[in-house]
Amino acid sequence: MDTRPRPVSTAKRIRAALWRTVLASRGLRQRLAWQLRHHYPADLDARVPIGEGLASPLFDDELSASFAEIFFQAEYAPLLDLIPLPRRWIDLGCYAGFFSLWLERERRRRSERTPSEALLVDANTSLRGRIEQLIAINALAPAWQHRCGAIAPGRGECEYIERPYMASSLGALDAAPGTRVRIPVLGDDELLRVFPPPFDLLKADIEGAESELLRHYPRLLAATRHLCVEWHSWHAAGSGRAGIEQMAATHGFTLAREIQPPRAVASGGETGVLLFTRPSPDDASA
Questions:
Q1: Domain ranges of the chain
Q2: What is the CATH superfamily name and number for domain 63-285?
């Protein structure tokens, strides 16, 4: 075998010299670093440690709002005062995956030894790579899965409008400007096929499509013990608090607590988060 080093091509030498010349400027390096951090953070493969051996991929200013809500403001902390730590859950509207990552950190902090299983679902096509990267860097696959698709009536595809700062939604629910894409509808059958029941928790933060979940996904809901749902006063009929409560009751759920009280949003209207639960067979026999 010939072990002699191969000569470097002239083209490679020229490229290397050009990069050395470009990066010799500290100001240019700083500009390049800023652009990468703010517009292409995934390409840096940098990570934000959150404790318990877990980390998030480096995120930009837009995703930092969601990270702050979950980890700094602890918006979902009351959830774990009311229900046992879930082992198997579905995260509908997972966005960048921070809610599920927070749940996993809490499980490890409390020395839960049984591995978790989770299905993370979001319709925003631009987040697909980030969610899969989060799962990969924490070595959570194959117990954790991700699907890109919408919670909506019917089959096939539907229109989805992607907007910044957690404002994306089904086109049928909100026609405000944004990037219009066609995405697959993830129905009852598909979700149950890729992630068989039962489920300790189903969390839904899907910008108005919570009412579509409660209308069109009876089998998924029947396999769920605890249901955490965001409501919005400005979306389609039935997605406000009263409508969500009424529809949850038809599936055997009772309201356990208001996790996040109603709060006004800049665009008008109110939103909040409710936790529902259903009696277990053990409760009925006690």
A1: 63-285
A2: Vaccinia Virus protein VP39 (3.40.50.150)
Could you give the 3-state DSSP secondary structure of residue 185?
A: strand
As a whole number of angstroms, the distance between CA 9 and CA 286 comes to 78
Band of the pLDDT at 286, cuts 50, 70, 90?
A: very low
CA nearest to 92, candidates 247, 240, 199:
199
- Residue 265, pLDDT score: 74
User: What is the spatial distance between Cα 136 and Cα 127, in angstroms, rounded to a whole number?
Assistant: 14
Buried b / exposed e over 217-229, threshold 16 CB at 10 Å, is: beebbebbbbbbb
User: The tokens 């599920």 sit on which residue?
Assistant: 100
Averaged pLDDT of the chain: 86
Residues 6+ apart with CB under 8 A from 238: 211, 214, 215, 244, 246, 247
Residues 232 and 174 sit within 8 Å (Cβ to Cβ): no
User: Any bridge partners for residue 272, and if so which?
Assistant: 231
pTM of structure: 0.83
Query: Closest Cα to residue 253, out of 215, 226, 272?
Result: 226
Distance in angstroms (rounded) separating the CA atoms of residues 257 and 228: 10
Provide the 10 A C-beta neighbour count for residue 29. 12
| Residue 274: CB atoms within 10 Å | 21
Nearest alpha-carbon partner for 257 in 240, 239, 243, 277 = 277
Q: DSSP for 99-163, please give it.
A: HHHHHHHHHHHTT--SPPEEEEEE--GGGHHHHHHHHHHTT-TTTEEEEE-B--SSSSEEEEEE-
Question: Percent of the chain having pLDDT more than 70?
Answer: 83
| Phi/psi at 228 (5° precision) | -115, 115
DSSP character for 46?
-
CA of 166: how far to CAs of 35, 95, 203, 270, in Å? 22, 7, 16, 15
What's the CA gap between 176 and 4, in Å, rounded? 63
